[in-house]
Structures are given as structure tokens and as C-alpha cells.
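Page 42, continued from yesterday. The earlier attempt failed because a stray header line got pasted into the input along with the sequence. Redoing it now with the clean sequence only.
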Amino acid sequence: MRRHHPGFPQLRVILLLLSGFLMSSGLVQSALATVAGGTVTVVPVRWCVMAGTKIATDPAFFGEPDTDSVLWRRHERPTDRIWIPGADITFRSAITWAVLTNDNFPVITDSNTSVGMPGDVIDPDLDNAADFKRAKHDCDTAWRSKNWLAGTPVVGITGVSINRFVDNNGNPTSTGGHGRTGLYSYTSSPDPFCIAPQDLAITEAGGFLVVDPSTNHAAYMANSFEGDSRLIGHEIGHVLGLEHGDGVDSNDNNVFDGYPPSRGCDPNEPQVATSFSPSIMNNPSTNLVTRNRPGNRDQFTRARAFASKLSGGLTDPPGFLAPGPSIGDRAFDPYDDVSSRSVDVLSVGLAFSPIREAVMLSQELFGLIDGKETNQYLFFLDLDAVRIPMKPATDSDLKPAGHSDFIPAAIPI
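This time it went through. C-alpha cells are written below.
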């Protein structure tokens, strides 16, 4: 596998929040590259690393010349061992040539040092993932600053290499990684996540955190880094919509995986199918991604459905790289800048699908919304700048949605 640095097609968007948060971005050229092989989906990974961790301070410890190389290897191995053979998905660095001339993978400072050592993150099961969101948001913000200077959008999934996951007293837990599916929208009923993932529209790609390999160096080095490859391959699986399980509809009820504690698509699913090998999403894990199951109830179908909808994703048919079916951008707002987390906006974003002629708006909050609250959020759009192709503008004025070339019914929020 070799590194690709194509540019991304970009959507110009202006989103204005009640807090006065503003995002605006410019056009970026798309690029084509000649790549041999079959058709695969290409997903960018935005890596960050916590300052003070072994990867940031001593990359030679892992046999690499620099921090960038250690991080790049951490998505290259699961790509080659798991996701290309299992689902025709390849992961590449989100660094384009424009970004590369500006900087490398961001080294971010731990913004919460109240527990544990610098670079530690509270186990997501213990704080409703609040510290996870902080670390991911710090990485996203670093990329927003980097890409803003380079004139490129924030696309792909977020990956943060931390020190350790710890409990509320700073003691390390057994958690090695945590991945979360991003934000999605849909127009059908019921929610098609479990039964028809191809009907979803992805508005925010999600991300994962993984511990520094030095915290379990023997496992990292064993079997040519197989343990680290499976750890990251597993967490990327969560980002692509996969739940814990063997990837098989073991009880033949038309849904699969999600047994406790996931409480997902099928909480009653047996944890290990006696007739099928454990998958990358099960314990013990293998490099297997299930496919060709009855009714396409398998990990291959769901993961590809998610990967193919991510903004910044590319398709790789023989001979060239082509833009995927969705383009967009995100902007980020500081956390803990308001009194209640239920109104603390972390990010806003817009994704545009030319194929569906649909625009998806999304917002990410730091906390949960109480059922008694009636909050309101306003989105202001420069409609001329995100006009649907093949529908030329009749004038250059900013017009309300009902009098523009938008299709109002196709803007899920």
C-alpha cells in the first residue's frame, strides 16, 4: 500500500449558530490518481496524538523515523490485513498536498489533566464519553485550523492516539480503544440503521481513540503488530456502524449483532455463534469481516454503506481515483463555553449528496438534552453557494429556502 495525497472537492458553506459561531470555506480542486486494482472505497483518517505520549516523544521506540510514520502505520496495517480483503475499504491519511506543506499530523495537548497523567482519557463507560468527546473535539479543532489555512475541508474520520484509558481515580482500565459511529440522517421509517444502512445519509463521520502502544508494548510488537492492527480495525468497525458480535444473524430474526452491553440492533443475539468464526467485532477477535450472508445481513454490507457515504470518501475503480457520492465540511465550537452541556454545541456540519439532490445539516452537542427542554437552533445557509448541479441560478441574491433552487423536503436536520 502506498500513500495517496489527492485533493478533495469542497463545498462552500456558511453556517451561523445562535452563539455567533461562523464557518466559511473555499473551493478546493479535486484530483485524480492512477491506482491499479479493483474498485474499493477510500476513507481519509485524521490522526492526532496526545503530547507527551511515547509516539509523540520517541517514535524510534516503535522502529519508525518520526511520529507521522507511527500513526500512518497504525491505519495502514488494519487496512492491509482486515479492511481491504474483508470489505474493499482502504484508509488513507487525510493530509492532502496542500495540508502537508502547512504541517503534519497534529500533536495536541491534553485539555483535561484533572485525572491521571497527561494524555490519559477517562474510560467512556464511566463518564458518558465526555472526556472522549473532549479529546476528539481537540483533534477536530486542530484539523480545522490546519485545513482552514490550506483551504481544504475537514473530511474523513478522526483518530486520536492517547496515553491510557483510566478510571475516575486515574488508574488504568482494561480498555484499549473506543470507537463511535458519527451522525446520520434518514427519511424512511423506521430507522434503517439495522435493516437498510444503504438508506442512511452520513453527516458527521465519527471517530476513535486508541491507547499508546507503549502501554502494552509486548502485545503491540507480537506477531508483527497483529494485536494493534486488530485493536484499530475493531474501533474503525464501530465508526463504520458495526456493533459487537460475530457479524452473523445467529438467531435468524433479520438483524444481527448488538448484544449487551451494546443494546443495539439485536440485544438477544448470541455472543458467539457456534457455526461461525468470531469476527473483528467479537472477542476473541480475528481479521474476519463477514460477507455474503443471507439478505446481506453482514458486516461487509453495513461497513461499505457507511464508508461510501462519508464526506471526503473516494472510489477507486481501476485506473483512477474518483470523488465519492458525498461532499461537505464541518466547523467546531469550544466546549464548556455555556452553563449547560445540553446546549453546548461542539460542531455543525453540512453534507451534500448530488446523487440524492439532498443537503444534510447536523449539530453535535457536548451533553444530552433533557426531555423537558425546548431548545432551538438556527441554521443560515448561503443558498447560491451550495446550489444543486444542473439547476442554474436565476439571480445572485440570497433567497429564502422556499424561493431557491433547493428542494426544502430534502434537507433533513
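Notes: The CA atoms of residues 63 and 70 lie 8 Å apart.
Reminder to self: strip header lines before submitting.
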